[in-house]
Design goal:
This protein has a 7-stranded parallel beta sheet, with helices on both faces. A 6-stranded mixed beta sheet has the order 2-1-3-4-5-13. Helices cover 35% and strands 15% of the residues. The longest helix is centred in the last third of the chain and has 19 residues. By secondary structure, it is an alpha/beta fold.
């Protein structure tokens, strides 16, 4: 059986991927929230051989794997796997696959949109005009400015190319030190420290791992220019929350464009949503019809390949 425990908000139900999954066997689909509760997640997948993971609020912990001995595979829609205990998966004999790169161009476009929205003060200008005002704000031009891209995977590489296309000088940093990949995207290889001190826009495109949690903290924010913009479409925990709030409130950086947050959805009254120098979007940078269609189909294709004994897009394989 295939279980889809976390299709909330629903994108899978009734899709082409749903129909393709049903051709593989019985599909147990849950479109109401609840998979963020560990006991409920276990209840939803305890009889399944395969789980298709739609949303990151479902946490696949060692406790979950231990309680679901029939589970052999988790197919993740998306790239991030920080909601899955990968070591536990391997030790419990579970294969984990994802769909890297499917949303890359959409997320890169969104990152560019956020940096432009902050630089051009679009939300504030729109709000004031709707209130009957005619604001005459000075805006920031990105032509000739420096873009620093931290993380040069498919998304980061596309962001670098887009920055280059609008006339920015682009610096790139890769966790793997892949200078060839950086240059291929039209960027110049640079260190993290040099990027933070030189960049007018810093854009984060890293996976969340124990090593990258808090990748940008007080020290890093203090290194940035007071006129700099921070863009985060990766994961909220890449940046230390209190340090970012303080830097924005005290205008030690000019602003931030954020698609990801430490708590999602944002809690009512979260101070990040009150700051005039922040542009927010609800972790939907990759939410386009094309990305949803292609990503869900690929997640099911990964299930097909696994059932045929030829797993694809493997993040972790069982420890034998």
């Amino acid at each position: 059986m295939i279980a889809v425990p976390d299709d909330f908000p629903s994108v899978f139900e009734g899709s082409a991927a749903h129909e393709r999954a049903k051709a593989l066997g019985a599909v147990s689909l849950f479109t109401e929230r609840g998979a963020d509760n560990q006991e409920e997640l276990i209840r939803r997948i305890d009889r399944a051989r395969v789980a298709i993971n739609i949303r990151a609020h479902a946490r696949f912990s060692d406790t979950v794997f231990a309680a679901c001995p029939k589970l052999e595979m988790v197919s993740v829609w998306g790239t991030g796997t920080d909601n899955i205990d990968l070591n536990a998966a391997g030790m419990r004999g579970v294969t984990v696959c994802n769909t890297p790169g499917v949303n890359a161009f959409a997320v890169a476009e969104h990152a560019l949109t956020l940096m432009l929205a902050v630089a051009r003060k679009v939300p504030m200008l729109d709000r004031e005009m709707r209130g009957g005002k005619w604001p005459r704000e000075m805006l920031t031009q990105l032509l000739g400015k420096t873009l620093g891209v931290l993380g040069m995977g498919t998304i980061g590489g596309r962001v670098a190319a887009l920055g280059k296309a609008i006339g920015m000088d682009v610096l790139g940093w890769s966790a793997q030190g892949d200078e060839k990949r950086i240059r291929a995207a039209g960027a110049r290889p640079s260190s993290k420290e040099a990027i933070l001190s030189a960049a007018d826009v810093v854009s984060l495109h890293l996976r969340l791992t124990p090593e990258t949690r808090g990748f940008i903290g007080r020290k890093e924010l203090a290194t940035m220019k007071p006129t700099a913009i921070l863009v985060n479409t990766g994961r909220g925990a890449l940046v230390e929350r209190d340090a970012l709030l303080a830097a924005l409130q005290e205008r030690r950086i000019m602003g931030a464009g954020l698609d990801v947050f430490h708590q999602e959805p944002l809690a009512e009254g979260d101070p990040i949503a009150t700051l005039p120098n922040v542009v927010c979007s609800p972790h939907n940078a990759g939410q386009t019809p094309e990305v949803v269609r292609d990503g869900l189909l690929r997640a099911v294709a990964n299930v097909e390949a696994f059932l045929q004994g030829k797993p694809t897009d493997v993040v972790v394989a069982p420890v034998r």
